[in-house]
Amino acid sequence: MHKTSPHRHQRLADQIQRDLAELIPRELRDPLNGLITIQAVELSPDLAHVKVYFTVLGGDPQYALGSLQEKAGYLHSLLFKRMHTHTVPTLHFVFDTSIERGAEMSRLIDQALGSKPN
C-alpha cells in the first residue's frame, strides 16, 4: 500500500478546499442556496474520499446540501481537470453546525451574564 506524506496529504486537502471555494459559487447559482462557504475538508488516509464541511448564509442548509450532492459528480470532474493528481477523491458534503453552536453558546452566556445581579 502506498503511503502519502503528511505534507502532501495536507497540500491536497488545502488545494481541494481552495478549488471548491472558487467552483461552488460559480457552478451553483441558485439563489435559494444562499452563500455557501467551505469551512474545512477532511481527506481520508487512502485519499479516496473527502468530507467537505460547509456553512450557508442566507439560505436553507438542507436545500444547499441537496444542491451540493446533486452537483458532486460534476464538481468532482471539474476538480479532476484542475488538479495535477492521478485521482481526485469522492466528494461527501456535510453541513457544519459548529458556527451555529458557537453563536448559540455565546447567546446563552450573554443571557446568563445579563440575568445575574452585579
Explain this structure:
- With 118 residues, this protein is an alpha+beta fold.
- The protein has a single domain, classed as K homology (KH) domain (GMP Synthetase, Chain A, domain 3).
- It is 53% helix and 20% strand.
- The chain is built from 3 helices and 3 strands, in the order H-E-E-H-E-H.
- It has helices at 6-27, 61-82, 98-115, and strands spanning 35-43, 49-57, 90-95.
- Strands 1-2-3 form a 3-stranded mixed sheet, with helices on one face.
- A hairpin with a 5-residue loop joins strand 1 (35-43) and strand 2 (49-57).
- Helix 1 crosses helix 2.
- The model has no long low-confidence stretch (mean pLDDT 90).
Short summary of the structure?
With 118 residues, the chain is α+β, with helices and mostly antiparallel strands.
What's the helix-strand series? HEEHEH
Radius of gyration: 18 Å
Query: CATH-wise, what's the superfamily?
Result: K homology (KH) domain
Apparent shape: globular
Whole-number count of domains = 1
Q: Under CATH, the topology is which?
A: GMP Synthetase, Chain A, domain 3
Helix coverage percent of residues? 40-55%
| Major beta sheet, strand line-up | 1-2-3
Write down the overall mean pLDDT.
Answer: 90
Q: How far is the N terminus from the C terminus?
A: 63 Å
Number of helices: 3
Indicate the CATH class.
Answer: Alpha Beta
Strand content: 15-25%
For the secondary structure, the number of strands is: 3
